[in-house]
Amino acid sequence: MPEDDQRATRNLFIGNLDHNVSEVELRRAFEKYGIIEEVVIKRPARGQGGAYAFLKFQNLDMAHRAKVAMSGRVVGRNPIKIGYGKANPTTRLWVGGLGPSGRGRGILCDGRERLLMLFLLICLLFISQI
């Protein structure tokens, strides 16, 4: 579970990439696991190491599913290595697991919506205890 790993973030580091891999290829390989907000590909000069990328998913659950499913898979011509990237500070809040089985969709909130969402979540938790 992603919440068990303190290093887990919604950003994935993808290493050992083919130097010619494209953003389209990366999106195609990873988008089945969730919404990708950003792709950044770094291509060091030849002899300075292989290409690598950072993928930012909409939430932690999506990133975790992609990490588990794609680790060691071949993208382009190379088997990739995946780790969690650094977290970027944000004022947004993701509330997931809202479905009946705890695996449903979530809600992404910003600003004042976040306070309202926290209040509603606390109310729901309180009501479910009654």
Automatic annotation (TrEMBL):
PANTHER family: RNA RECOGNITION MOTIF-CONTAINING. GO terms for molecular function: RNA binding. Keywords: RNA-binding. InterPro entries: Nucleotide-bd_a/b_plait_sf, RBD_domain_sf, RBM15B_RRM2, RRM_dom. Residues 10-87 form the RRM domain. This is RRM domain-containing protein.
